[in-house]
Each structure stands twice: as C-alpha cells, then as structure tokens.
Design goal:
alpha/beta; 6-stranded parallel β-sheet; 19 helices; 47% helix; globular; binds uridine-5'-diphosphate-glucuronic acid
C-alpha cells in the first residue's frame, strides 16, 4: 500500500522503515531539509540499534523515500500516518500543535479517499476531533477517516519492538478503516487488538502508566528496603517468579525519564482532572514518587557531605536510559542543576549524551571522553545511566583514580560486596548499603 508518514522522530522514522520492510511503499515527510537530505543519504538522524542498516536495505529495494514536500506525499498516499511529536505543555497537558498542523496540511492536500492513522500519543478523544476537523476541511465528496494506532516501541530497541511487537492495537469506527488497517498490519504477523478509537487511545496510556507504576512501586520499596536492611534486587527477584508479577520493570533506580512516561502520566492526570473532574490517585502518587526519586542521589550525598562547594564531582551517564542518545527528562539534569547551585565542579561522561548537555550547559560543565578522565581526581562520582561500559568499569579504578572513592550509584551497576572489597565508599539504591 502507498503510505505517507508525517514526522521522522523515533516513532515516525522507525514506523516508516518497518512498514517499508514488510513491503509497503513508504514516503516519510519532515519539515527539516537537512534531516531529509541525511536520511536520503542512508544515514539515521537518531541513534537506534539496527535502524540505519534497515534504512539502507529498504532504500535499496526502492520501498522508501524522504521528502519535505508534504502536499505531494499526502496527495499520493492511500494512508497517512501522523507520527509528529506531542510534547508536554507548561501546564502538563499534551501540546497538539504539530498534530493539528499536520491535519491541516492533510486536509489541504488529499484528492482521494484517505485513511489517516494517528500514531502520536494523543489525549483520549483527540482522534475524534481530528476526524471532525478533516471531514470539515477536505474537498467535497472525499471520504476521510481516522484510525488510532498507538505504538509500544521503546527507544534503543525500537526496530525490534516494531518488527516483533507484542501486539498491534487498532482503533477504528468502521469496517472500511478496519479492512485498511488489517491490510497494512497483517504482514507483520503479530497479535492484533481491534477496538474502537477511545479504547485504543486508552490502551496506550494505561500500558505506559502501568509500567511507570511498576517502576515507582519498586523505587518506593527500594527506599524502604534501605531502612530495614533488605536488598531490593533480591526482593524484586523473589517477586518475579510469580508469573502474575513477572520480572520486567522492577529495576529500582533514580526514577523514570524519557519522553514518554513523564509526559503520559501528567497528560492523563490533567485530562482526567480538567475535563472529567476525575482524581487519578495512582497517577498522582507515581508522579510524586518519581520526582523525589530523581534527586535521591543528590540528597543522599548532601546528607553525607553537608555541602558541595568546591567539590569535584563526576557524573557517569547522561541519557535517560542506556542504548539511546535521548536525554529528555533524564535524572542527570536535575542532579546537575542542584550540584551547580551548590558550587560543585562537574565533569560529565556519556557515550552518546554529551552533545545535548553541551548545548544546555556549555562551559558550566567539563566534558570527558573516557570514564578514566571523568573520575580522575574527583571527590564524588554519581552514576546516572547503566551503559555497558559504565557497568563493566572495574571497581578498583575508582580507588586508583579518584581523590576520594565515593560512588553514588543510581542504577545499581555493581555488586555491593565488589565495591566494598575494592575499598569504594558505595551508596546504591535499596540495598542496605
Ligand atoms: C516507553 C515504553 O516502554 C514503550 O513501550 C512505549 O512505547 C514508549 O515509552 C512510548 O510511549 O513511546 P521508553 O520511554 O523508550 O519506552 O523507555 P523505557 O525502557 O520504558 O524506560 C523508561 C524509563 O524507566 C527509563 O528512564 C528507564 O531507565 C526507567 N526504568 C525502566 C527503570 O528505572 N526501571 C525499570 O525496571 C525499567
């Protein structure tokens, strides 16, 4: 099928490339000319395992092209996916500006019956509004409909998550749209949940928020474990043998970051409150636990050191998780801001995240290209992201290179006994330290 994809961020680009991989004829649209030229040359603008190889494969097969000419792409397509960003507004609601801009261009462009598929995470009810808008604005006589198709890919494993998805969720209001969606997605050979649009939109929020809840829950358990001398890693393992609980998303740490959980928890909370006067008590707790957890390392070190004036500090890991260059809502920002306020001298290291921090902080931070350089001569090291090179970094090196081997590990990268044996003063999350 001829498909256009609006937006080439993590979701749009990966979706477009995977739809091309299963045989569809895909045109990816973006307003950024430089990005389009880059993708045209076979390069991925984002760091995502396996993406560049797949881009080159589907390009060689003639299944994908990239363009800034949205009107031509939409006019030509049978189905248009909207995969533009829905960032968080100042008040915590989802900002739908880019979604509506795209809908406006679609309405101006289409010249035949078209299915519009909304992949961007949007508040419940938005698909309905977009459909109304499109119906009012397309040329007379054209049939246009909106389907919801929330995505469940995680950054770092986005290609795998799409090609081997646990399920495909389709929200439609007619057989016409349902048939088209099955035509698009059947080749993936994955379980399909077909429902109405509101349920599809809700599946996305309910899924992400449940995962965020698991993370906040285990973090709260971890904080309590510290008080009673229990080890949260063992507690989580002990829980995980129960198939009703499972072993996923029970890794205690410094809270969830990224562009999804923080945004989606707030978006549903505010939508429920503002539009339905509904108090989401679980979501309120998730947000509050996560806000505290993000700065837990800083406050623990502050308890230990009193203040940070003139202290030399290393930060290992800047991205919101390993395997991505994305630093949005990373705990590193929050801890660095507090440390700078207190007069610490900070050197940061990350295999992928430095450009974003350089842009944000410039000369306020020092940037190291190796872990050795980052920690050499430092008084305190904070571990923020569990990149493999950080996890595998030898414990003895902290003692050898640091001025004073104080390590605050927000990702439980090391066995406590290993750090103790090496002579490191080690604090980690929920492990009776
Ligand atoms: C998340 C979901 O996992 C995807 O299914 C969803 O499609 C995506 O949001 C989205 O809505 O677009 P992502 O934000 O890429 O994906 O990252 P996750 O792997 O879910 O991690 C989120 C945060 O939770 C990270 O900061 C991670 O470090 C943290 N986390 C995760 C923990 O602290 N502990 C865990 O056990 C798991």
């Amino acid at each position: 099928m001829k498909i256009a994809v609006a937006g080439t961020g993590y979701v749009g680009l990966v979706t477009g490339v995977c739809l091309a991989e299963i045989g569809h004829d895909v045109t990816c649209v973006d307003i950024d000319e430089k990005k389009v030229a880059l993708m045209d040359s076979g390069k991925s603008p984002i760091y995502e395992a396996g993406l560049e190889e797949l881009m080159q494969k589907v390009a060689a097969a003639g299944k994908i092209r990239y363009t800034t000419d949205a009107q031509a792409a939409y006019k030509d397509a049978e189905t248009i996916f909207i995969a533009v960003g829905t960032p968080e507004s100042e008040d915590g609601t989802a900002n739908l500006e880019y979604v509506y801009q795209t809908a406006t261009t679609i309405a101006e462009s289409v010249e035949k019956d078209t299915l519009v598929v909304v992949k961007s995470t949007v508040p419940i009810g938005t698909n309905e509004i977009i459909e109304q808008f499109l119906k009012e604005h397309v040329k007379a006589g054209l049939h246009i409909e909106v389907a919801s198709n929330p995505e469940f890919l995680a950054q770092g494993t986005a290609v795998k998550d799409t090609l081997e998805a646990s399920r495909i969720v389709i929200g439609v209001e007619s057989d016409w749209a349902k048939e088209k969606m099955y035509e698009i997605f059947s080749p993936f050979n994955q379980p399909i949940v077909c429902t109405n649009r509101a349920s599809a939109e809700m599946i996305k929020y309910a899924s992400n928020i449940f995962l965020a809840l698991k993370v906040s829950y285990i973090n709260e358990i971890a904080n309590f474990c510290e008080l009673i001398g229990a080890d949260v890693e063992t507690v989580a393992k002990g829980m995980s043998y129960d198939p009703r609980i499972g072993d996923k998303f029970l890794k205690a740490g410094i809270g969830f970051g990224g562009s999804c959980f923080p945004k989606d928890t707030k978006a549903l909370f505010h939508l429920a409150k503002n539009e339905y006067d509904f108090d989401f008590k679980t979501i309120d707790s998730i947000i509050s636990i996560n806000n505290d957890q993000k700065v837990r390392l800083f406050y623990k070190a502050k308890d230990d050191f009193g203040n940070f004036l003139g202290k030399k500090v290393a930060i290992l890991g800047l991205t919101f998780k390993a395997g991505t260059d994305d630093t949005r809502e990373s705990a590193a920002y929050y801890n660095i801001d507090l440390l700078l306020e207190e007069g610490a001298e900070i050197t940061v290291y990350d295999p992928e995240g430095i450009p974003a921090f350089e842009k944000e902080y410039g000369k306020k931070l020092k940037y190291a290209t190796t872990i050795d350089d980052a920690i050499a001569g430092k008084d305190i090291t904070f571990i923020m992201t569990d990149w493999a090179d950080i996890k595998n970094y030898p414990a003895e090196q902290y003692v050898k290179l640091m001025n004073d081997a104080n390590v605050y590990d927000g990702r439980n990268c090391y066995e406590t006994r290993v750090m103790k044996a090496a002579g490191v003063d080690y604090y980690s999350i929920g492990r009776g330290n």
